[in-house]
Design goal:
Elements: H1 3-10, H2 17-27, H3 33-43, H4 66-76, H5 88-99, H6 118-123, H7 130-165, H8 173-178, H9 180-193, H10 210-217, H11 225-231, H12 235-238, H13 243-270, H14 286-310, H15 330-338, H16 345-352, H17 356-361, H18 368-377, E1 404-406, E2 409-411, H19 414-422
Antiparallel strand pairs: 1-2
Helix pairs in contact: 1-2, 1-9, 2-3, 2-9, 3-10, 4-5, 4-7, 5-7, 7-14, 9-10, 9-11, 13-14, 16-18
Length: 443
């Protein structure tokens, strides 16, 4: 596997930008002396701590149903053909095939209400004892539940990747390898977008740093700009697309915005979230909400940018959905208050406007003028803050080495960071003092 292949694999992972910069140096032998010097300055940090880091270089991947499928095969004595244990549909099809022995209905899996009694089993020709029938019913119920969890995990990973890297999943390996200049820019830029959030009062760092600038400048008229637009839908990129390419991308972002909004609507109805503050309350699934909110805001931003690039903003003037706020941890909210701050101004705008999914569904009215009025009311610049126009990053960021984080808090040494993680420090959970060497280690 060469450097370009490793760069392609990084699109679906979470390598540090300095690690990606090192791969770019290997993948691009035609770099000028100045370009190579810029990348070397960043790639040099890849060897920090001898290349060791306690943070994962990947996003959490769903755990397949291999164990459950193997147990079902053993219990039922069936082969079931080829089963893709990572595909929930394939797992459910296998469950239905195995369950034919006991007339199992995938839509009726309640252990108390849906099992067949002795008479029903006899009528169905099931010659199993009650104990053996119950064992099989339980096994199929667990397999069905696993398929459901697998589908939810796959969906959450897709949402996480959409928020962090746009539509890079739509780029195939051959297309990626065919344009090394575009490939290197996409791989590095998305690695910067994937940087973890730090527990701080500052916002997210501009992903466009000096390395991204160098790699972007290498792209020419022959570059596959439509491929770059899948990961970086900015005005500088979109203006280079042909009308049909821009229209296709606009459709992608519009469909994604509506799809994620529907999922947010379902979660909103089942969660007790304070619309005014968005502070997390006990029992709220904050991880799922924030993953969906990130995906929605990324999709909405891509959609609005495409509308502006195509000169079609008038089509959405009368139905302009707002952004969605992430839920805020109570301790971070208190820190803001102790620091003399308060809620982010965007939160006040969000609470002032109709819910975005209601606007998209046509059950609530929110025009672009309504969004601008809400922004002015709370002293927010609607265009610069991304409410009514593409959000623009000012200037080029300066690269800084990726910090070792423990629940969002930077720690200087990765070994110490691993000890703090195991002890659940900064997580809001009870400390495990044995990991740290007892109470004396904390004093």
């Amino acid at each position: 596997m060469d450097a370009l292949d490793r760069l392609y694999d990084s699109l679906d992972a979470r390598l540090r930008p300095e690690d990606v910069a090192a791969l770019v140096l290997d993948a691009q032998p035609s770099l000028t002396h100045r370009e190579r010097a810029v990348l070397r300055d960043v790639a040099a940090h890849a060897s920090r701590w001898h290349g060791f880091s306690g943070m994962s270089d990947d996003y959490a991947r769903p755990v397949g149903a291999a164990r459950q499928v193997a147990a079902t095969r053993f219990l039922f004595g069936v082969d079931g053909g080829t089963v893709d244990v990572d595909d929930p549909i394939s797992v459910l099809e296998f469950a239905a095939l195995a369950g034919a022995e006991i007339n199992w209905d995938p839509a009726r899996t309640d252990f108390l209400a849906d099992r067949l009694n002795r008479g029903a089993r006899a009528d169905a020709g099931i010659e199993l004892s009650k104990r053996q029938y119950n064992r099989r019913f339980r096994m199929l119920r667990r397999l069905s539940a696993k398929a459901g969890r697998l589908e939810r995990a796959r969906k959450m990973r897709r949402m996480t990747m959409l928020a962090a890297a746009g539509f890079v999943g739509a780029i195939d390996r051959d297309r990626f390898r065919a344009d090394p200049d575009a490939a290197c820019f996409i791989a590095y830029f998305t690695s910067r977008r994937k940087l973890r959030r730090e527990f701080s009062l500052a916002g997210r760092e501009n992903p466009f740093d000096q390395v991204a600038n160098v790699l972007f400048a290498r792209c020419t008229a022959r570059t596959d700009w439509a491929m770059i637009a899948l990961a970086c839908p900015t005005w500088d990129v979109l203006r280079k697309l042909r009308p049909e390419q821009l229209g296709e991308l606009l459709g992608r972002w519009s469909a994604a915005t509506r799809s994620v909004a529907t999922q947010l609507d379902e979660l909103w109805r089942s969660s007790d979230i304070d619309h005014a503050t968005m502070v997390v309350r006990r029992g709220v699934d904050s991880s799922t909400w924030n993953a969906l909110a990130g995906a929605y805001n990324a999709a909405r931003a891509g959609w609005i940018t495409c509308l502006h690039a195509a000169g079609l903003t008038s089509l959405a003037e009368d139905a302009w959905p707002g952004k969605v706020m992430r839920v805020v941890a109570a301790d971070l909210a208190r820190w803001h208050q102790m620091s003399g701050g308060g809620l982010h101004p965007d939160t006040s705008v969000w609470s002032r406007l109709p819910l975005p999914w209601d606007v998209l569904a046509g059950t609530a009215v929110c025009t672009r003028a309504d969004v601008e009025a809400a922004c002015r009311e709370h002293r927010v610049e609607p265009e610069r803050s991304g409410w009514t126009a593409p959000r623009a990053h000012s200037g080029i960021a300066r690269f800084r080495p990726t910090p070792e984080l423990v629940h969002g808090v930077a720690v200087s040494d990765p070994l110490w960071a691993m000890a703090l993680r195991r002890a659940r420090v900064f997580s809001g959970k009870p400390l495990n003092t044995e990991v740290l060497g007892g109470q004396d280690a904390l004093d």
